[in-house]
Each structure stands twice: as structure tokens, then as C-alpha cells.
Amino acid sequence: MCLFAFCLSAPATVYAADGAPSCGISITLIMLKGGAQPAVPAESSYRSALEFASAMNCSEAFAGMRKSAALGYGPAQNALGELYEAGAAGSPDYNRAAHWYELAANAGDARARYNLGRLIIDERAPAEAATHVAASPGKTATGLSAAQSASSPIWNNGTAAHSAGRERYLAAARLWQISADAGDHLAQYQLGALFAAGMGVPYDLARARDLYRMAAPFVPAAKKALDSLDSGHGL
Asked: 196: how many CB neighbours lie within 10 A of its CB?
């Protein structure tokens, strides 16, 4: 269950350069319009799958992503997770989506960390799933302890439900911090929203503002949130 409007319950559909939807895969297809040829078979299969997705041939896109993901290619593993989440196999399969997001995250895919965090907050993956994902080299994610998280005003009544919610939001924040550091603009926006609300992390409008500012050129909702904070109206 998603408690706030800033939560995303499904991958945001991104459109190809020609305006065609991409089978629910939330990655840009503009890269397919040129550039160097892929160096490895896994990337070749991935690009072919994106071409099928751009043409709305979702069955072939799904088959191609499965092939590339099985070869260990992180972007394909993330895209396959998005396809499972979107119901490409018949109906949404959140367990398989989380599985592929975990694999992609451990392969270094920033969007996969973001996607896994969404599933955790929406109670479609357990908070423990975040512990299956290694931190980036030299990083400790947010570095937030459970005690720091518990200091947030929203979590001060000590109920079991609030404790479970705190753990979900803290787990997502840890994943999103790594993605945000890697330049994922959706993660920057959503992590900013957590700091602005004190959900799983300390209430910190200055940090929220910094994250919104990074995401604002790319995420309209982040620009709106930043303008709201700068005008003194809050969220």
C-alpha cells in the first residue's frame, strides 16, 4: 500500500523518440537512433529488445530482455523486472520483478535500486530485499541507523504498524540514496520527498531542497516541489 501521493505504484512509462510507448519499460529509447554497435551479445539482445518495445511488439521485447538478462546484463535485468511488474507475462508478478531488480542493482544499475525501493514502500517486496543489494563501493547508502529513523516525528507512536512502515521507508531511502548519488533523477526526487516528510529518514527540508534541485530539470514534479518549498508553502 502506498501511503503518499509521491509514491509510484508502477514504472513510469517513457515514450520513444517517435512518441510510441515502450511496453511499460521506463527507459529512454533515443539511444537506439545511432551510436556505436554493442560490444557484447547481452547488449545486442538488449538493444534488439528495445527496438521491439519501441514498435510495441511486447512479446518479442520480453523474450529479448529475458535472453539479455540471463547473460547478466544489468539494464536488461532491470527492464525485465519492469516488464514483470507491468504484467508482460500475463499479470503483474512482483516477486519476479523484485528478483530481477535485485540482480540488476547488484550489477550496478541505479534505476533498479530505485525500482526495488518503490516495491518495498508499496509493500510488494519485503524491506529485507534491500539487504540483498550491496552498497556501492565506498558508500554506506544513507548511513542512517534505525535509531535515527525512529527520531522522525511521523514515527513517534511506537506501534507495530509504524515500526514496519519505518523499516520499509528506511530500506527504500538507503537504496534511493545510492541511485541518487549515481544521478538517477527519479531517485533524487523521491528521496527528497522522504526527507521533506520525515518518512523513514530525519525531517530535513534543506536536504530535500538539494535533492529536488538536482532532479528539477528532469522531473516536473520535483520542480513543482522545489518551487513550493522556495515559496514557503511546503509540500
From this structure: 23
Q: Which tens digits make up the pLDDT trace of 70-96?
A: 999 999 999 999 999 988 878 999 999
Sign of CA dihedral 34, 37, 39, 43: positive
pLDDT in tens, 149-198: 334 444 444 445 556 788 899 999 999 999 999 999 999 999 999 999 99
pTM exceeds 0.90, yes or no? no
CA distance 163 to 169: 10
DSSP 142: B
* Residue boundaries of the structural domains of the chain: 1-134, 141-235
> CATH assignment of 1-134?
1.25.40
Asked if 176 contacts 191 with a C-beta cutoff of 8 angstroms, the reply is yes
Question: What percent of the chain stands above pLDDT 90?
Answer: 53
Closest CA to 127 of 104, 98, 105, 155: 98
* Angstrom distances, CA of residue 96 to CA of 67, 85, 185: 15, 8, 25
